[in-house]
């Protein structure tokens, strides 16, 4: 009898806990969305925006990005800022009476709680300890090391692609090899788990084909960000390469629709992430 009664008590507590959780989510305001990292708790190994963009840019067998791609470095820094914003760590300063553009507003710390990702936490720490507030475009340049001020070179994040590749190795997506390029040896990271990249490519393709919403407000923010950031990093074409000519034309037409949107107008819509649109503005201005 006591065991049965104990079981009923546990069930009542569990039911009560679930009800409290539902109420907590229902009362959450639109300005405080549920943090994205809560979605990373599933058994499936989730990738950050930086890892997804790098994975799109990596050659499957060779294990390195194109030597001619000079956009991916800055693109990855935009990924970091967007990821931090989606996880509720940073935001833009509030508007004042005289409305300012997205790129005029400074990045502010919303929460300094660690994300669990070394690169993200490093970027977050730079923003936290910065003596002078900077806008999104300046942070992209500072994190890339593109500054004439020697005092701000400390903000540069080094070996980003290599560190992201190692993260993907730990997640079982890539492996590590050494390749000889006549004058030097280079560590490469060929694809070892094709399913991860296949799912990523399908997600990008579906977002502008079978799951096209024709309304940015109805698109998942993380997928929307991925399209913009992959384009800014010059790796979006890699996701569309396997498509038929007809699907490719449709996909590129819809991507062009997204690129032609005005970030200032989109950022003013309910539920919009201002940092995301500021990053878009920094790349499309």
UniProtKB/TrEMBL annotation:
Domain of life of the organism encoding this protein: Eukaryota
Compositionally biased region (Basic and acidic residues): 16-30
Example GO biological process: retrograde vesicle-mediated transport, Golgi to endoplasmic reticulum
Membrane topology field: Peripheral membrane protein
Record keywords, A-Z: Golgi apparatus, Lipid-binding, Membrane
Broad class of where this protein is predominantly found: Golgi
Region of interest (Disordered), residue spans: 1-43
Record GO terms (molecular function): phosphatidylinositol-4-phosphate binding
Localization terms from the record: Golgi apparatus, Golgi stack membrane; Golgi apparatus, trans-Golgi network membrane
Membrane spanning stretches: none
GO CC aspect terms: cytosol; Golgi cisterna membrane; Golgi membrane; trans-Golgi network
InterPro entries from the UniProt entry: GPP34-like, GPP34-like_sf
Similarity comment: family membership: Belongs to the GOLPH3/VPS74 family.
Protein name per Swiss-Prot or TrEMBL: Golgi phosphoprotein 3
Organism: Oikopleura dioica (Tunicate)
